[in-house]
Amino acid sequence: RRQGRARHRRAAHDARPVTGPAPLSTAQLLGLSITRRRPVDHDPRTPTVVLVHGAMDRAASFGRSMRRMGHLDVVAYDRRGYGASVDAGPPGRIADHAADLAAVIDWTGAATVVVVGHSLGGTVGASLAVTGSPRVAALAAFESPFPVLDDSFDQVGGGAVQIGASQGAADGAEHFYRLMVGDHTWSRLRERDRAARRAEGPALMAELADLRIRERAVDPADLDLPLLVGMGGLSSDRMRSGAALLAATAPIAQLDEIANAGHGAHLTHPDEFARYCDDAVALASVPQAPGDGS
To answer: Which long-range contacts does 60-67 make (Cβ < 8 Å, 24+ apart)?
Structure first.
């Protein structure tokens, strides 16, 4: 496996001012629910940012960060099987989610985009990027899973796949959600919100099962575009080591840490996550050769 040379830095996230919200619009595409904030004076030479959420998440989780990126054209969408896109059709493989991402990129009309994926959203972005999509200028992946890097295929999902197979997808989804946010947070959800999360079980089971198949794994060593790997300063050792390994493997990579944040940095630290997105846009415009992460 070839390896890049990543630069690890604790980002100076107060280096650029956070801007106020741009005008909001919504749309539907192929059953996918899309949210966009686009400044009236947007420069078309600046890449559009497309945000891709992780497992059992939704576009709304990026809302506070999007409000702080008023100088950028920013798009987020509920992935197939989640949130307002729960009825968009049968959930499929990660490659199918990458095809949805490509359709959203086409819908934006942007000449170039920067894809920012949180958790499994970064894996979806990489799945598209390795195909050589010419409009994707850079990729950012915040604590995204790539089991090919540490041969952790059988650990994907933390038991959710097994529970889904034996007890049903809804129970598997509940187990996964509790694993991510804790039993206390789950207990505080309204009954309708619990039902909505459990309804996302088929989408979750499909993508976790796909992520466990070695032959379909996305190899970050095949990425030939700038990659900004993100991690939280308070994230688990497993998340942090995975991010470091990703940055060390991708040919053109930087490792960016958001101090005092955990895996849900987009929720708890929206200013810093907005600047992380801004850094990814800046990285897209810097010529770099493979192996040069500086």
So the answer is: 60/35, 61/118, 61/266, 61/267, 62/118, 62/266, 63/35, 64/266, 64/267, 64/270, 65/266, 65/270, 65/271, 65/273, 65/274, 65/277, 66/21, 66/35, 66/37, 66/274, 67/20, 67/21, 67/37, 67/270
Is the C-alpha dihedral spanning 207, 222, 219, 284 positive or negative? negative
What average pLDDT does range 14-41 have in this prediction? 88
Mean pLDDT rounded to a whole number for the chain: 91
Q: Is the pLDDT of residue 30 over 50?
A: yes
pLDDT single digits (tens) 76-110 = 999 999 999 999 988 789 999 999 999 999 999 99
| b/e map 41-76, b = 16+ CB within 10 Å | eeeeebbbbbbbbbbbbbbebbbbbbbbbbbbbbbb
**CB within 8 Å of 285: residues ≥ 6 apart:** 137
**Rounded alpha-carbon distances, angstroms, from residue 158 to 2, 68, 104, 202, 261:** 29, 34, 30, 16, 22
Separation CA 251–CA 6 (nearest Å):
8
CA distance 282 to 114: 10
Q: What is the pLDDT of residues 249-265, one digit of tens each?
A: 999 999 999 999 999 99
Q: Please tell me the predicted confidence (pLDDT) of residue 61.
A: 97
Contact 198, 167 (CB under 8 A): no
The DSSP output letter for 19 is P
What is the CA angle 121-250-80, rounded to 5? 15
Partner residues linked to 50 by β-bridges:
75, 115
Sign of CA dihedral 218, 109, 81, 241: positive
Q: Residue 286: is its pLDDT beyond 50?
A: yes
